[in-house]
Write a structure and sequence with these properties.
Length: 448
């Protein structure tokens, strides 16, 4: 545990971010909860208030909010190098693992081992997301007004299918209006850092000065923009000059750049766009392959949006981008290209916007709308948990079969996972591993 006045070296941070990259299961809600538990509660590298302020900003950005939050905290602690290390290690283990799983999937087809593991893990993932919604909501929603925003957001998405950007905008407006009528709740909403023993210290505390590298600088802003654009043009120019602008690798680079910039609301908001482009327009993979890839993405560490690496791998393999004799190598190259163009904007958003966000910490006119957005996201995460639950508990649809199509084993194991996570306080990694083993054993028993 670090107390105020201690320092954390980049080497120490490196090992934590590397560990997080390998154990960050449970989607954005689980990953954010995991970072909060480790960085705020245990290590006290950052205070609750600074953590939530960074989270509010990441929630309104297009792209994977958990990966962006890791990048933000890494940048706040150790500058640009720290941000690149934190954000990069959040993605790298998932990319390597998905390449391996994609190769197994395309080479050996549907193995009973894989099917059994996926069957056991899905109820665990549902339990992780559900508990994360409760944990974040119980901390962030300290007034009936904020609970109301969360409830409205849930209904807007679950019942009326309102687009996620519209929900964010509405929540920000409610936060701004609420600030004028109930300013005290937006000030109190950040008083969550007090522990039962009264300790509120943190390496980056509520009143810690903004580090020099995190202060706004017009020169630094322009330099970051120029470097980001140069990196994009360098890779895209290399693709255009070697394989041509109409080649699938070039098309992937452009398509996933648009996906990264134009879609809000996390992985489930971008997936319809990816399906439309990857399956229907370009034919990089089939609809069945896309569904299987989503299952793999849900059960690997890292952001769920990493399913785009699977899309790239299958597309590179299917389109034989390096020829018929190098299918696996072509898949790996395509997955790497897709990952680069998907995540480059995420790093730029943090490095460009971070100084402005840090400068706005004590300005209620800016923090109140962000607090409203945080409340809305609680409702959206709950909707995601129900989305998982519906597909896990009713795999063939509600009403298809006895007991309305309810999968009794999945329901039972999901309840056990909730107990293990909440009552026994088991780690997410431990529950995931046990769920994989249980699913495999159950499949063997049923098959026998």
């Amino acid at each position: 545990m670090n107390h105020k006045g201690d320092s954390v070296s980049l080497r120490q941070a490196f090992w934590y971010w590397l560990k997080l990259g390998f154990i960050s299961f449970g989607g954005p809600a689980g990953q954010i909860s995991m970072m909060h538990q480790e960085l705020v509660d245990k290590r006290r590298w950052i205070s609750e208030r600074r953590f939530l302020h960074a989270l509010n900003y990441c929630m309104v950005l297009p792209g994977p909010e958990a990966q962006q939050l890791a990048t933000y905290i890494g940048w706040l602690m150790h500058g640009v190098r720290g941000g690149i290390v934190a954000g990069g290690l959040f993605v790298l283990p998932s990319l390597l693992l998905l390449m391996l799983l994609s190769w197994i999937y395309l080479s050996f087809g549907h193995l009973p081992l894989v099917a059994g593991i996926l069957y056991g893990i899905k109820p665990a993932v549902t339990a992780i997301v559900l508990l994360a919604a409760w944990r974040i909501g119980s901390r962030a929603l300290k007034h009936w007004f904020l609970w109301g925003i969360a409830a409205l957001s849930f209904l807007a998405m679950a019942v009326f299918n309102v687009p996620f950007p519209a929900i964010l905008l509405g929540a920000a407006l409610l936060g701004w209006v609420g600030m004028r009528w109930l300013p005290h709740i937006f000030q109190a909403s950040h008083s969550l850092a007090v522990k039962s023993d009264g300790v509120v210290d943190a390496l980056i505390g509520d009143h810690s000065p903004v580090p020099e590298h995190a202060r706004f600088s017009r020169r630094r802003l322009m330099l970051t923009v120029m470097v980001g654009l140069a990196l994009w043009w360098l890779v895209m120019g290399l693709l255009w000059s070697t394989v041509g602008p109409k080649h699938d690798l070039s098309l992937m680079g452009w398509f996933f750049t648009k996906a990264a910039l134009l879609t809000f609301g996390g992985a489930y908001a971008v997936l319809p766009y990816v399906v439309q482009g990857g399956v229907e327009n370009y034919g990089w993979l089939s609809a069945t392959q896309m569904m299987d890839g989503l299952a793999l993405g849900e059960t690997t560490p890292g952001p769920l949006i990493m399913v785009v690496a699977y899309v790239g791998f299958v597309g590179g393999w299917t389109k034989e981008v390096l020829g018929p004799d190098a299918l696996a190598l072509g898949g790996m190259l395509a997955a790497t290209v897709v990952t680069f163009f998907t995540f480059l904007p995420s790093f730029l958003f943090i490095l460009l916007g971070g100084p402005l966000v840090e400068a706005s910490r004590n300005q209620l006119k800016l923090t109140a709308p962000l607090t409203g957005i945080t409340a809305a996201v609680v409702g959206v995460i709950l909707n995601l948990a129900l989305f998982f639950g519906e597909h896990v508990l009713f795999p063939n649809g509600i009403g298809a079969g006895p007991l309305f199509g309810l999968d009794i084993p999945s329901l039972g194991w999901g309840i056990i996972c909730v107990a293990m996570l909440h009552q026994l306080q088991w780690s997410i990694l431990r529950v995931i591993a046990l769920s994989a083993a249980a699913g495999f054993l159950y499949t063997l028993i049923v098959a026998a």
